[in-house]
Amino acid sequence: MSTKYKAITTEEAYFVTITTVGWVDVFTRLNQKYNIINSLKYCQDNKGLEIYAYCIMPSHIHLLCKGTNGFVLSDVMRDFKKHTSKGIIKTIIDEPESRREWILPYFQKTCAHLKRIQNYKVLQDGYHAEIVETNWFIKQKVNYIYNNPVRDKVVTLPEDYYFSSARNYAGLENELEIVLLDLF
């Protein structure tokens, strides 16, 4: 298996992108955004995940993060994706969801070709990890992360998007504590 775009080292930070299969806009629902937030909090508290920046977009999540305390980020991402996928499906089944009748069959169909037995596939394989090596790279990726909702015209200013750590850096109310970087 290729190690390109995988976080296989410890104690190094990575820019990570996790994407839904077919770029389905799963994270447009508030309950699904909280699935992500709660899973990230769990990984922070129990799996050594240290987050410096994040943004939850409708079909993908960007993170600037690393594994700490002996946790390898690839293992953290594997567990995060597995747990989050189960939570997404449970929410679609158990809570009001107008897209249930097409989205569940879509997620079932996307795993039909897999060798491993799986009922639903919500997130694409991998997480496109790019190792952080310079402050320039960090600044470029943080600006990219924060301007995602601005480019999509969801908000005018990055800190207005509630599910982004741009709010943490602006000193505004937020849902997820992060480690603030002194780069700006």
Sum this structure up briefly.
Strands 2-3-1-4 form a four-stranded antiparallel β-sheet, sandwiched between helices. It is an alpha+beta fold and 184 residues long.
Provide an overview of this structure:
The protein has 184 residues and is an alpha+beta fold. The protein is 38% helix and 13% strand. The protein has 5 helices and 4 strands. The chain has helices at 30-46, 73-94, 100-109, 135-151, 166-169; strands at residues 14-19, 49-56, 60-67, 130-131. The protein has a 4-stranded antiparallel sheet, sandwiched between helices. It is globular, with a radius of gyration of 16 Å. The protein starts with 13 loop residues before the first strand and ends in a 15-residue tail after the last helix.
